[in-house]
Amino acid sequence: MKRFNTHSLRPRSAALCLAIMAIPLAACVTRGTHDTVVGDLEERNSKLESRVRDLERSNRSLSDERAELLDSMEDLRQEREDLSVDVAKLQKTKDLLSAHLREREEEVHELSKLKSTYQGLVDELEQEVTAGQIQIEQLSEGVRVNLSQEILFRSGAVQLEPHGVEVLRKVAGQLSGTSHVIEVQGHTDDVPLSVNLAQRWGTNWELAGARAASVVRLLQEEQVHPDRLTAVSFGEFAPVSSNDSAEGRARNRRIEIRLKPVEDPAMIQVPAAGAPEAEVAPGS
What we know:
Layout: H1 6-124, H2 126-130, E1 134-138, E2 143-148, H3 162-175, E3 181-187, H4 195-201, H5 204-221, E4 229-235, H6 246-252, E5 254-260
Parallel strand pairs: 3-4
Antiparallel strand pairs: 1-2, 2-5, 3-5
């Protein structure tokens, strides 16, 4: 029988045993490390998930705040627009009130001037007013000066008498300071013109118009601007009294000077210095 050398087998067996014993030890270290790594990863993942949830909550909160801010901005924008509209309305109201105030101030100024003109006429023509030859009346929008024919014209004439010229010069001195339109009205009674006068004037229309034009021309000569002057004939058709009596007919034969407000101030144009003034034709 063949013998084995037991001494040569012993080292090999020991090495083999050591190798076999090392296998489970190596496996044990690997699983522990794996568990540790897995545990770390799970913990990190849990923290990341928690962080993500926190960020998501923060994002939702920021989104809500952003939405609220946008709503607030929209509300502020709408309020700003509303305020702009209110400011525009208030500015318009202010402008209207300012315009009305200027108009009232101008009216007060004009009324003050008108009152001054009225008082000046009364003072200048006190003698004629006392004698009943002239009537002066302050109206709501102007002044009416009623001049009897007897102090201005001879019967059937259109040339002003000297006393009439003197009276009208006093009137012109007061009218030159006003800004009103000056309407000179010619009036007659209802008695038809004589044959001689009819041959010259035709009817009371033309006679009254020629007398009004004579007054207008004198006022122009006394520096009342012609753009403010108008000559009008009413003939016999605007009586202030009955024509059935001599006294009534005398009151109807008159020249009325009316101060009226200017409807369109642009129509009143003062010519440049040195420019010729327009002539006023009789009957215009």
